[in-house]
Amino acid sequence: MNLTIKYATEHDALLIADISRQTFYETFSPLNSKENMDIFMNVQFTRGRLMLEVGQPENIFLLAHNSSEIAGYAKLRDSRHPKNLESSNALEIARLYAQKNMIGKGVGKILMEKSLEIAREKKKDTVWLGVWKQNKKAIDFYTSWGFSIFGECDFILGNALQKDWLMKKPLL
Fold first, then answer.
1. Under a CB-based contact definition with an 8 Å cutoff, are residues 130 and 166 in contact?
2. Would you list the domain boundaries of the chain?
3. What stretch of H or E contains 141?
4. Are 113 and 144 a contacting pair, CB within 8 Å?
5. Exposure string (b/e) for 46-70, b if CB count within 10 Å is 16 or more?
6. How confident is residue 96, by pLDDT bands cut at 50, 70 and 90?
């Protein structure tokens, strides 16, 4: 396995949109109704909306490659913070996904390492994220990296109200 990371640019917007939609659908469609997934994918998480995120100054996208194959991606966001996060000097890991065939092969690890490196370069004292309460595998992954739960928030998927844990990791 030869994993590398590159910063995505606006030229990668379509690729980011497609991998975002693919990995989200693969991860969550088995756990949600077809109706709610269809609404989410066709209204809330459209290719056009996702493409607009790339190149926005508050967003950083990372692409993980295994040779020439896309292995996963991360979206970092430096714009908003939950009210109950003690630090205002924080960076959000808004998304971190591996392609289905790459799960367990170090993609999450390399994306997390680069995300934390970027946060440190930006002199952030905290990294935070939201994760669905029912996504035990992701919660276990984040916990293994030193993240702890500090709150919860609502996430709307189609017509379903879901609850996410808010997790943070201090960097100092």
1. yes
2. 3-127
3. helix 136-144
4. no
5. ebeebbebbeeeebbbbbbbbeeeb
6. very high
The domain defined by 3-127 folds into Aminopeptidase (3.40.630)
- The residue ranges of DSSP E strands in 53-157, in sequence order, are 59-66, 69-77, 90-98, 126-132, 148-157
- Closest C-alpha to 71, from 111, 99, 108: 99
pLDDT of residue 12: 96
The rounded distance, in Å, linking the Cα atoms of 41 and 58 is 23
Question: What is the structure's pLDDT at 48?
Answer: 94
pLDDT digits (tens, 9 = 90+) for 9-53: 999 999 999 999 999 999 999 999 999 999 999 999 999 999 999
Helix ranges restricted to H, 62-134: 107-121
The helices-and-strands tally (H runs, E runs) of the chain is: 5, 7
